[in-house]
Write a structure and sequence with these properties.
Helices cover 63% and strands 11% of the residues. The chain has 18 helices and 13 strands. The strands form 3 sheets. A 5-stranded antiparallel sheet has the order 2-1-4-5-6, covered by helices on one side. Helix 9 runs antiparallel to helix 11, helix 10 packs antiparallel against helix 11 and helix 15 packs across helix 16. The longest helix is centred in the middle third of the chain and has 69 residues. The protein starts with a strand and ends with a strand. About 1% of the residues have low confidence.
């Protein structure tokens, strides 16, 4: 039997799928990742869940799905009846895994004879108790306890069930028949062998030719079958390529639909939020920029107005001071008046020097007064002109501020009309965010368009009439297959020449039907006599071994095989293993005559001892034709590297006969067996 795949919702495992391979499967995962849970699931799928148990540690409570989903599972197997699929699910909460079905894999046909209660015993040939004490090795569960089912199984295998038979009489009768067939050089078999040898010598040449001819034809048939297989693998490459193209087309279609849905959902969100169109947002950004420029202009104009007002105030203050006439002007005016008065007083008198001097002084004073008056008048006019210019500048600045304020108010109202914000201070952030959303939507639209174009391109070049089934691509590449086909054709030509040559030689020698008929009859008779001889010898040997087993019970045989395995695991340190009826184990070191109880060994050595006992029980107790898989959950965790390597070699050899699932939380097993044939590395 062989585990193929599983799909489970069990404990912490939620819809977990795993595919196993023949041989040794190493399932590597850290602690608390579900290894022990997976082992329990495999046992549950075979033997069902013990619903009668109570308490937190009962399997139905311990492995209840963490997600709250119903407990369920599917297990695909290869059995003597062919590939089958077991399904257990939960229909009622008080009966977890209570629903059971067994179908032939890939069909809807039920497997007759399999029920939820006896499924494991029917498939494995042993009861749950025997399986748990042999091939099902749980974590920290290598030691074996006594069980009536296991003892009955061993007893049934080593007893004949015929207590009235006499061993000595049976052996005597068998020995007489054995001598009649062959006793030294006498008997039926030696006489018939001599006759066959004489006939065979006459046909030796013809036999050689026939052998060569048959070998050539066989080889030719094998090569032709290989050629057909190579061509089939080439066609599988084509089919795999077509299926990959179809898968890519499906993925492209889903991607296009998803991208379109995302773009549409984003657009609906923007519509619900009443996001303005991009053109309105761009215009609003331009208006906002205009408002910023208006603010800057008004600030600049305000600065200029402040400067001009300051200059006007300073000018007015300076002009006020200049309106008061200087003292020298007053003095000169008084002097001029006095001179004029003196001139008048002396006008009637005769010209004298004082009169002339007084007139000259009067004229000078009058000239100075006239000059100063004219100068003051000019200055006043200049001051008035300059003040007028400053006042006009102030008025112009105030008018410009008013214009800018009106423009700002108008632009603000227009902007608040375009975008849904209550305050102009929020406009910039809203426009930036809205444009970002518009850009995101455009990007989603572009992605949807690209995905649609990719889908249309793949759809245009998609293969036609491809069967919807899984095709596994061959391990060899196309180039390797073509090279193998070429080599195959060359070998076919060579074998064809050999077959033609030997056929011609056989026809040239002539018909040998008479020789062949006689030889066939004699060889047939010889074969019958030899089979009878071997059967009698085997019966005597089996009878003797059965008698020995009946005398010694099962413990020595089991101990001997366990000792062989334990010696391999410990590099010959231990040579003997003893077991009592309760399966308590004792080990004896090489060169010593004292056996040590397993509890006195180190944890690693004790685990190695009980692993050897487990493997021996599997060989002696489990049905050989069933090839029951071996499950080990962290069984090598206490082994050192050297003994772990020995155990892995032993398990790898055992995997040639049965499938082995080795669960481990370490990396050394996979590192040691990496690249070895028959080893599959998995992870949870």
């Amino acid at each position: 039997m062989q585990f193929c795949s599983l799909d489970t919702t069990f404990g912490k495992l939620e819809r977990r799928e795993i595919i196993f391979s023949p041989g040794l499967n190493i399932i590597e995962a850290p602690n608390e990742s579900g290894k022990s849970t997976l082992c329990a699931f495999l046992r549950t799928m075979l033997y069902g869940l013990k619903t009668g148990e109570r308490g937190a540690l009962a399997d139905k409570n311990r492995y209840a799905p963490w997600s709250g989903s119903p407990m369920r599972g599917t297990l695909s197997l290869i059995t003597e009846q062919g590939p089958i699929t077991l399904q257990r699910s939960t229909v009622r909460a008080n009966a977890p895994m209570g629903s059971f079905s067994a179908l032939y894999t890939g069909t809807g046909d039920s497997v007759s004879g399999l029920t939820a209660a006896d499924c494991g015993e029917q498939l494995l040939g042993v009861s749950r108790e025997v399986y748990e004490r042999s091939a099902f090795i749980r974590q920290s569960g290598l030691a074996i306890d006594s069980d009536a089912e296991l003892e009955r199984r061993i007893a049934a295998l080593i007893t004949t069930g015929e207590e009235g038979s006499s061993y000595s009489e049976t052996v005597k009768a068998l020995k007489k028949q054995l001598n009649s067939h062959r006793h030294n050089k006498s008997g039926q078999i030696p006489a018939l062998e001599q006759s066959i040898s004489e006939d065979a010598s006459a046909l030796s040449e013809l036999q050689v030719l026939e052998s060569q001819h048959k070998s050539a034809e066989t080889g030719l048939a094998e090569l032709q079958a290989e050629q057909a297989d190579l061509k089939r693998k080439l066609s599988l490459h084509d089919a795999a390529d077509q299926l990959e193209q179809l898968q890519a087309l499906r993925e492209a279609k889903h991607a296009a639909e998803d991208a379109d849905a995302k773009a549409e959902a984003f657009y609906r969100t923007m519509s619900a939020e009443k996001t303005p169109p991009r053109e309105v947002l761009e215009q609003s950004r331009a208006k906002l920029h205009t408002l910023e420029e208006l603010i800057a202009q008004r600030t600049e104009v305000e600065k200029k107005r402040s400067v001009v007002q300051t200059e006007l105030a300073e000018f007015d203050a300076t002009a006020q001071r200049k309106r008061t006439l200087p003292i020298i002007s007053v003095v000169m005016c008084i002097a001029a008046a006095l001179s004029a008065l003196g001139a008048v007083l002396f006008a009637c008198r005769p010209l004298t020097v004082p009169t002339v001097m007084c007139g000259i002084l009067c004229a000078a004073c009058a000239a100075a007064a006239i000059y100063l008056r004219r100068r003051d008048s000019t200055a006043v006019l200049a001051q008035q002109h300059e003040r007028s210019l400053l006042a006009d500048a102030v008025s112009e600045a105030e008018a410009a501020c008013a214009v800018l304020d009106a423009a700002y108010a108008s632009q603000s109202d227009a902007l608040l009309t375009d975008i849904p914000v209550s305050d102009i201070s929020l406009a910039s952030a809203y426009i930036t965010d809205a444009l970002s959303r518009r850009e995101t939507h455009q990007q989603l639209v572009r992605e949807a368009q690209m995905a649609q174009m990719q889908y249309e391109f793949l759809q245009k070049h998609a293969p036609k009439n491809v069967p919807e089934q899984t095709v596994k691509r061959p391990a060899h590449s196309r180039e390797e297959l073509r090279r193998l086909l070429s080599e195959n054709a060359a070998r076919c030509s060579e074998l064809q020449r050999t077959a033609d040559y030997t056929a011609g030689r056989i026809r040239a020698i002539g018909d040998r039907a008479d020789f062949e008929n006689a030889l066939i009859q004699k060889r047939s008779r010889l074969g019958e006599l030899e089979m009878e001889y071997e059967a009698i010898a085997l019966a005597m040997d089996s009878l003797e071994r059965a008698n020995t087993i009946l005398q010694n019970r099962f413990s020595p045989a089991l101990g001997a095989r366990a000792a062989e395995l334990f010696s391999q695991l410990t590099d010959g340190k231990y040579q003997k293993v003893l077991l009592d009826r309760s399966f308590k184990a004792f080990a004896e070191e090489s060169g010593l005559s004292v056996s040590r109880d397993a509890v006195l060994l180190s944890q690693g050595a004790a685990d190695q001892l009980y692993l050897a006992v487990r493997l021996a029980i599997c060989e002696l107790v489990l049905p050989a034709e069933k090839n029951i898989p071996l499950i080990l959950d962290d069984a090598l965790i206490n082994f050192d590297d050297t003994r772990c390597a020995a155990a892995l070699e032993l398990l790898l050899k055992e995997a040639e006969n049965r499938q082995i699932l080795l669960f481990t939380c370490q990396c050394r097993e996979s590192a040691y067996l990496a690249g070895r044939e028959g080893v599959t590395l998995l992870s949870l």
